[in-house]
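Per-record layout

source: Streptomyces bluensis
name: Substrate-binding domain-containing protein
length: 533
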Amino acid sequence: MVETIADFFDGLSNGQLWAGALVCALSASLVAFWLDRYQGWRRISWSEVYNGPINKHINHQPPPGMWEIHWQGRQISEGSLVMLEVRNSGVQTLEPEHFAAPLAFTFTGKRVVHFKVRDADEPLEATLRPQVRVPADAEPADDTRSGSGVGVRQATVRAPSGQADTIVLPAFTLNRRDWFRLLVLLEDDGAGSSAKPPKITADGKLKGGRVKRTAGRARRRWATAIVVTLVAALSLGSGVYANNESLKLDATCSQARRLTVTGSTAFSPLAHQVKEAYEEQCPETDVALEANGSSKGLEELRSNTAAETIAMVDTVAGQEPEKGLDAHHVGVIVFAVVANQSLAQDLGPGQSLWDRGLTQDQLGQIFTGGGFRNEDGRLAETPVAVVRDYGSGTRDAFEARVTGGKGTTSAPACADGSTGVCSVSSTMELLDYVNRTKNAIGYAEADALPFFPNVRTVPINSTPPTKENVLDGDYPFWASEILYTREGASGLTLNFLDFLRSRGVSKLLEGRGFLPCRELRDSKVGEMRCDGD
């Protein structure tokens, strides 16, 4: 009942609910415009875009699917990856003279290993380029090239009491509504609990303004919040309550104590988040996650006739369901063609590989070892095509939906100096190989790129892998995620499936290259939608 009411209010959010508050909203907008336009306040808004663990160990063992991040040859122990968005949300361009105190971010209980500035223009990126000071027994945190940063104050890491937990940014210029992101690599400082995400605080002063944290994207000004508040006040309290209730993580626990979730390496990072959330709700339950490929997941499900087991399988449209098993469609995984940035030959705006991409026919030629005639000059050299091993659902999706069934009958394992087509056994191996191998090209889930600086996404038929393009049917590289169980599954297996398909977990997985069934209802591709939706 609660979920039905929440879905009802979701439907109203596109227009009907706002129509009843039009007069009030227009009045409030005039007030907000006057306050925003003529008060002349300077303001920096910042928000957390991502804050998640890496290299987390449970009982001294890394969980399946967790990334292993190394910095300058050293594995980051009990680390975190944080992305912050910083935006000029005031009404004036910020200049260096407007800063009464520098903008700084502190990550309590963590040590800053390194950070990068993203989505900034070149002058701003140069100004904020980090010079990280680390303990004397570690290697230098940044390679300062000869002549770089001359005459420019650069961002640093402050080290109070010997702990570098704070990023201090120099005064900078930022136009109205412009923004940039900080991608920060952290590790546990040994004093706090690494199981908890770091507490993030900001410091700094603006003359005639302020620095403010926002709950979401920092676009919203406080004047706009007046409009949102007035309109929200006109909504029925029961709708708000129902929506909030439907987003709560609420698991049904079982007397069974162990569940094995096995299969797709593409879905395993998402399944790991669900596993941790479920175990937090049901602390006596142990969910074992095994990322070993779709086909091996099915083999394990069929062989474990007594144990509680779920197989994760990347499935392409038209593929026959597995006989003797129950199939549970949970959503769609979005994949991307990825390449080492050295592969492209930039010919100007709108003409590079990263803008125009490759056609499905060209990709078919590349991944069968033949390459293709590079008449337009977008590829600098013949690429090294990296494929997944047989049994990989990602590979099946690529060959079925992108290359039209074209694929190599066999491919040697990738190694230094490989040419033509070579293979790897997991997503992380593929991304690592493409990241360090000149002219390499491969494929992986679309959200797996943040810490591979030399890897870029290649559009297919000039279309990038966005949610909108997938739902409109313009982007072809996706696969349905099917969770298989034995027929008539119940108890812990069914409880975990219900938890994974809940609205709260769908929100938890939002923006991770996964589109749950609820988001597929309006898809223009009928075969993409889940049964019953």
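summary: Confidence is low (pLDDT under 50) at residues 11-21, 134-151, 216-223, 234-246. The chain has 15 helices and 22 strands.
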